[in-house]
TrEMBL record:
Entry-linked Pfam families: Glyco_tranf_2_3
Keyword entries, A-Z: Membrane, Transmembrane, Transmembrane helix
Transmembrane segments annotated in the record for this chain: 280-302, 314-333
Protein name: Glycosyl transferase
Gene3D superfamilies registered for this protein in UniProt: Spore Coat Polysaccharide Biosynthesis Protein SpsA, Chain A
InterPro entries named in the record: Nucleotide-diphossugar_trans (IPR029044)
Coiled-coil parts of chain: none
Length: 379
């Protein structure tokens, strides 16, 4: 059984009528997020352009997530907030998001476009930059064909306990920063689940087309990527913006990191297998193939050349020195926006090579699992 609760003393949405009363509505799915949900919600209260409504969907939680969300909702200084409890959700994050959207549609009269202009979807372990909504609104207003603006994700942490953990978290910070700096800006291939700002017409078009915005299937491990493809297939553009920043949690242990990345990579492979080679999937397929080739090159040919050079003398290997210089300079330049410490780590080469081994493992493992194992459903 599911239930919802409005803040006391505020009008319910059913009492409103008229066009575009809600400029920005936030959807926050939260499952066992008692540690970070208040931080995420507080970042919405601090926005320079405050949201008109926040909808928190607590789903399949066994901790105090709902209690903390209601604590935020009952604070009169925060934006209007509704907390929904979806106790039996078999469709993971996609199910929680659709549940919130369906509640919103019923509250505003059946169609999102009746009274809502924009919908922001964000994770409950994410903190948005104070100007995120303001900047995302400006970006989406610049082009009527834009269906969504994705956040540029950066890692947040200072909770390392030992040198290994500091290394692991540091490499994730570099990885996120590098990705934010190199993503396609005009036609981003994945809208980030950490923070994605949608035009309501785009979401309504998916509802009209297939009855759901986020595809409800227990095998859908990457609802953000699948929805990005669906938006493109229905004729919308999507983009990313470096000034729309979302700070997201990092994985503190190797086991948790591999589990997270295997889920993301496995979900991407599953989605690509289902759709095949199209004008909307070719970039992801090519990137994955090039990633495998690059890893094989660095770990295979590169390490072989290093052994040969050490055996016969480095002075006799001009090609090795040329490539070695490239391996140092290019990675360092790609993270210059993160500061000199990140550039130094990349320039040392060894830290990135170790992380490449880990990255190659989860990529290969994900591809194999996509073909030989089945995705378990939520109980």
């Amino acid at each position: 059984m599911s239930r919802s609760r409005h803040r006391r003393g505020r009008r319910s949405l059913a009492e409103f009528d008229g066009a575009a009363l809600y400029d920005t509505v936030i959807l926050v799915p939260a499952r066992n997020e008692e540690v970070g949900v208040l931080t995420s919600l507080d970042s919405l209260a601090r926005q320079s352009r405050r949201p008109d409504l926040i909808v928190v969907v607590v789903n399949n939680s066994t901790d105090r997530t709902e209690e903390f969300a209601r604590q935020f909702a009952d604070d009169e200084s925060t934006p209007q907030t509704v907390v929904l409890n979806f106790e039996d959700n078999p469709h993971k994050k996609a199910g929680a998001l659709n549940y919130g959207l369906n509640w919103l549609r019923e509250a505003v009269g059946g169609r999102l476009t009746n009274t809502v202009r924009h919908v922001l979807v964000m994770d409950a372990d994410t903190e948005l930059h104070p100007k995120f909504i303001e900047r995302a609104r400006n970006v989406i207003a610049s082009d009527p064909e834009l269906g969504g603006v994705s956040a540029a994700c950066l890692g947040r942490t200072d909770l390392w306990r030992n040198p290994w953990q500091r290394y692991l978290l540091g490499m994730q910070i570099i990885e996120y920063g590098r990705a934010a700096n190199s993503r396609y800006r005009r036609d981003v291939h994945t809208m980030s689940g950490a923070g994605s700002f949608y035009r309501s017409e785009a979401l309504q078009s998916l509802l009209d087309w297939r009855g759901q915005v986020f595809w409800e299937d227990h095998r859908n491990l990457v609802e953000d990527y699948e929805t990005t493809l669906a938006l493109k297939e229905s004729g919308w553009k999507v983009t990313a913006n470096q000034l729309c920043i979302a700070y997201t949690d990092l994985m503190p242990t190797l086991r948790e990191l591999i589990q997270q990345r295997e889920r993301w990579s496995r979900g991407t492979v599953d989605t690509l297998r289902g759709r095949g080679w199209t004008k909307f999937t070719w970039h992801s397929i090519t990137t994955m193939i090039l990633g495998l080739i690059g890893a094989a090159y660095i770990l295979g040919w590169g390490s072989t050349q290093l052994v040969v050079a050490a055996k016969h003398g480095f002075a006799q290997q001009p090609l090795f020195w040329l490539l070695f210089s490239f391996w140092i300079v290019y990675p360092a330049l790609r993270v210059r926006n993160l500061g000199w410490k990140a550039m130094l780590v990349e320039g040392l080469l060894i830290p990135e090579l170790v992380y490449t081994v880990v990255r190659t493992y989860w990529l290969v493992s994900s591809i194999v699992k996509s073909y030989v194992t089945r995705v378990s459903a939520w109980k």
